[in-house]
């Protein structure tokens, strides 16, 4: 598994990260969702550099010119519900992509222990296509592993890009151990060192789904 940590370079991405983490700013849900979208747009641009291109002849009002255009068929997948604004950011740039959705949730046994369940999947065939699967928080890695596994029932993609905003180091270690295939690339905007007793990322930002859409029962 190849890992790209976009925080290794200074960029405008850090401004958006600051605002989604900051307790004085993140409670503005509209602004939180838009910042998640903007991070998705930046990450989509970065991922686009790793795709295959082919030259296409374009006719302008004054002549013709060849331009390198992405040539890979793309499926954008996301994990509901927190992934929706992140997915939208990617869709603003990969606007010709097909789309897939997976519902993964934690079912708690007690205050600290839980299992991950996949409840819903809607996806086109991903056979021989490039799968980009988005989820803003990569905490334990278990939800991502199960979501990718569910999507693989729809075919074998040519390559897989996992896109996340904040990853924990334990989750990265987990995915490298369980999903360390050569055709998988992980893109993240930040890597935080640890998880708390509830498996939330520290320092993280809290619950991305609640911040985007309101608290759930």
Structure description:
The protein has 217 residues and is an alpha/beta fold. It has a single domain, classed as Rossmann fold. Helices cover 30% and strands 35% of the residues. The chain has helices at 13-21, 29-48, 83-93, 142-151, 169-178, 208-213, and strands at residues 2-5, 53-60, 63-70, 74-80, 98-108, 114-122, 130-134, 137-138, 159-168, 184-192, 194-195, 201-202. Strands 1, 4, 5, 6, 7, 8, 9 and 10 form an eight-stranded mixed beta sheet that branches. Helix 1 packs antiparallel against helix 2 and helix 2 (29-48) packs across helix 3. The radius of gyration is 18 Å and the shape is globular. The termini are far apart.
Percent in strands: 35-45%
- Fraction of residues in helices? 25-40%
Question: Would you give the CATH topology?
Answer: Rossmann fold
Total individual domains: 1
Structural class: alpha/beta
Total DSSP E strands:
12
- The end-to-end distance, rounded to whole angstroms, is 36 Å
- pLDDT below 50 for ≥5 consecutive residues: which ranges? none
CATH class: Alpha Beta
The residue-averaged pLDDT reads 92
The shape, in one word, is globular
Largest beta-sheet characterization: 8 strands, mixed
CATH architecture verdict: 3-Layer(aba) Sandwich
Keywords, please?
alpha/beta; 8-stranded mixed sheet; Rossmann fold; two-stranded antiparallel sheet; 30% helix
